[in-house]
Write a structure and sequence with these properties.
Layout (H helix, E strand, L loop, with lengths): L13 H5 L6 H11 L3 H34 L3 H50 L2 H6 L2 H43 L1 H46 L2 H9 L3 H55 L5 H43 L20 E11 L2 E11 L4 E5 L6 H6 L9 E6 L2 E2 L5 H6 L1 E4 L10 H6 L7 H10 L3 H6 L17 H15 L3 E5 L7 H17 L1 E5 L11 E6 L2 E6 L1 H5 L4 H12 L17
Parallel strand pairs: 3-8, 3-9, 6-7, 7-8
Antiparallel strand pairs: 1-2, 1-4, 4-5, 9-10
Helix pairs in contact: 3-4, 3-6, 3-10, 4-6, 6-7, 6-10, 7-9, 7-10, 9-10, 14-16
Bound molecules: adenosine-5'-triphosphate (ATP).
Adenosine-5'-triphosphate binds next to helix 11.
């Protein structure tokens, strides 16, 4: 795959022209640093390219000998000798060619292997901010086609530069050593076949660009309308016909462009055929005139050698003329890849990170300020303490900063000001592995990998026994469901767990956290997708855990927080009130209002729901 997936003939798109990379010495030496480990193999490749380029030209020279010393001199021995030699040389050149492409591919594959691995591990270290602010498609393109482009550079661009230069130089030397006058004629003929093919190529390139844009559009439509959520929307709004018509019309446009492109290719081939045929004729003509009128020493064989060598020059000249574009594209691609490498992970382990033996899960927020974007502060001066074994509940309107607050504890983001302490130590001074191992979050958006329920559970504890898995599922109230499946724990959950209901997914993710068994448990509206019956069951499962370990609950439903040791009411990024349910409910503040509003709304449900279903806020 070409860099960026769009390596056309020798023309740059307007965008490429505008964003030409700065090719500095540093960039080049950085690129070559990837080749360094394969120095020895590279020397072999270089040798192979040289040999095969020279050997490919030899049969052209031998043609002259076959004609002059074999055919014209009527010497059968010489004729057979040169023919066999030609055959041998060609065979050898091709064998060396095979070795060269094997080595080439081997080096390219190893370099891309190294690059992919280091890029993947680098990206794993990037913070959540990186993933929320960068387009997912962009990240994947860099991991896939940009890095694959590197392979293309090594197997094609670099090889092409070397082999074409060698071929051209050797062809020129051979031409001049054969006969300088004819060589000059040969060189004069070269532009004749280069110019028309370049202009034919230009037209083809412009059509290719249009058809690329068209194919991007088609892919976009397919991506949007054939995805699970897209199809749901199409079906709900009955848009099948409109989407079909839309798809059909773009598809039709694509057909037209494809035909045009293929015909431009036809013209291209015609121009190529005509001029590669006319070129030799011109040499025969001019060579013939010189031979007959001016220089009797020129032989028929020599003219034939010149014609044969000229034929061999066509491709290298054309390819070298296009190389500059490949080169710019390659450099742009490397620059894009290096841009990612140079992004410093925002959240890293401190140099002398502390890694205690065990944790109790105490948390303290000291005057914490936080924003995603500097112009919009989300948390202002938040302070609270969660002591060992206690449970804090956080309630507050949608968007008030509850999830943001808990994301600061496992350092998904770092505070802007103030500090977050875990077991009395600033989280920034603790070993990240230790910190995250000791915190378990059941988040709002449950994510399950496409695999079996077992795979998803083992993610939390790879060495869990069957009994442990079953026990965790029972405690999370999901075992009944699993038992009812034909394949039990080996039931496939589908893309992002979409084959399961929201509640089932959530219960599996609770079982996953139960297996992880961390010192601090955080439930971010963990029971929001459950009906009241299973919610109660989950509640029964969660309660013993909360009773024995430090925990934070973000909840919309009052039922889940009644027993919390302390309730924090967050409003506009600040702690508006705090206290126990009993204290707050009678205090006449925000919590009381909430309670009363909800109580009157949910008069028939006990206890009331503070969750303000869909779009409503506390
Ligand atoms: P809810 O109850 O709806 O889950 P919440 O109280 O948990 O809401 P947060 O998710 O913490 O609210 O969001 C707080 C604010 O921060 C919101 O206004 C949201 O738009 C903003 N926000 C959240 N994540 C990001 C992000 N990655 N980049 C920029 N802004 C964000």
């Amino acid at each position: 795959m070409p860099p960026g997936g769009r390596l056309g003939p020798g023309y740059l798109t307007d965008e490429e022209k505008q964003n030409k990379p700065k090719v500095t010495k540093k960039l080049i030496s950085r690129i070559f640093s990837y080749l360094k480990p394969y120095k020895l193999q590279l020397v072999f490749v270089l040798g192979a390219i040289l040999c095969s380029s020279v050997l490919t030209l030899l049969p052209s020279v031998l043609t002259g000998k076959i004609i002059d010393e074999g055919l014209i001199a009527q010497n059968m021995k010489a004729l057979i000798f040169y023919i066999v030699l030609s055959f041998g040389v060609t065979l050898l050149a091709n064998l060396i060619g095979i070795l060269e492409s094997y080595l080439n591919t081997w080096i390219a594959q190893h370099i891309t292997f190294d690059m992919r691995n280091s890029m993947y591990s680098h990206l794993q270290k990037m913070s959540m901010r990186f993933f929320t602010s960068n387009n997912q498609g962009d990240i994947i393109t860099r991991m896939t086609s940009d890095i694959s482009g590197v392979q293309q550079i090594i197997t094609s661009t670099l090889t092409s530069i070397i082999s074409n230069t060698v071929t051209l130089t050797v062809a020129l030397v051979l031409m001049f050593s054969e006969n300088w006058k004819l060589a000059l004629v040969g060189i004069a003929v070269v532009p004749l076949f280069v110019i028309p093919t370049r202009s034919a190529g230009k037209r083809r390139w412009s059509i290719t660009k249009d058809s690329q844009a068209c194919s991007d559009e088609i892919n976009g439509i397919l991506n949007e309308t054939l995805s699970v959520s897209g199809q749901l929307l199409v079906k709900q709004f009955g848009m099948e016909k409109r989407e079909y018509d839309n798809y059909k019309s773009i598809n039709k446009k694509m057909i037209g462009l494809n035909i045009k492109e293929s015909m431009a290719g036809r013209w291209f081939r015609m121009a190529l055929g005509t001029f590669t045929n006319i070129g030799p004729m011109l040499i025969y003509l001019v060579g013939g005139i010189i031979m007959m009128r001016f220089d009797k020493t020129i032989t028929v064989g020599q003219i034939s050698v010149l014609v044969a060598l000229l034929g061999k020059m066509y491709m290298p000249v054309n390819q070298l003329l296009n190389i500059q574009v490949d080169w710019i594209r390659s450099m742009a691609m490397f620059t894009r890849i290096f841009d990612y490498y140079d992004m410093k992970p925002e959240i890293e382990n401190a140099e002398n990170a502390i890694c205690p033996d065990s944790a109790v899960g105490e948390v303290e927020f000291r005057n914490v300020r936080f924003y995603y974007e500097p112009d919009r502060e989300i948390l202002h001066d938040v302070s609270f303490t969660l002591t060992k074994g206690k449970c804090i509940a956080i309630v507050g309107p949608s968007g008030s900063g509850k999830s943001t607050l808990i994301n600061l504890i496992p350092r998904l983001y770092d505070v802007i000001d103030g500090s977050v302490l875990f077991d009395g130590k600033d989280v920034r001074s603790l070993d990240l592995g230790f910190l995250r191992d000791n915190i378990g979050i059941v988040s709002q958006e449950t994510y399950l990998f496409n695999g079996t329920i077992r795979d998803n559970l083992l993610y939390a504890k790879p060495d869990a026994t069957e009994e442990e898995l079953i026990e965790a599922c029972k405690r999370a109230n999901i075992y009944d469901f699993i038992e009812n499946q034909d394949t039990g724990l080996d039931t496939v959950v589908g893309n992002r767990g979409l084959k399961l209901s929201g509640g089932e997914k959530q219960r599996i993710s609770i079982a996953r956290i139960l297996l992880k068994d961390p010192a601090l448990m955080i439930f971010d509206e963990a029971t929001s997708a459950l009906d009241s019956i299973s919610e109660q069951k989950i509640q029964d499962a969660i309660e013993p855990l909360i009773a024995t370990r430090s925990s934070i609950l973000i909840a919309h439903r009052l039922s889940t927080i009644l027993n919390a040791d302390e309730i924090l009411v967050i409003k506009d990024g600040e702690i508006a009130e705090h206290g126990t349910h009993q204290e707050l409910v009678g205090a006449g503040g925000v919590y009381t209002q909430l309670y009363e509003t909800q109580f009157s709304k949910a008069a028939d449900t006990t206890p009331p729901n503070l969750g303000y279903s869909e779009g409503e806020s506390i």
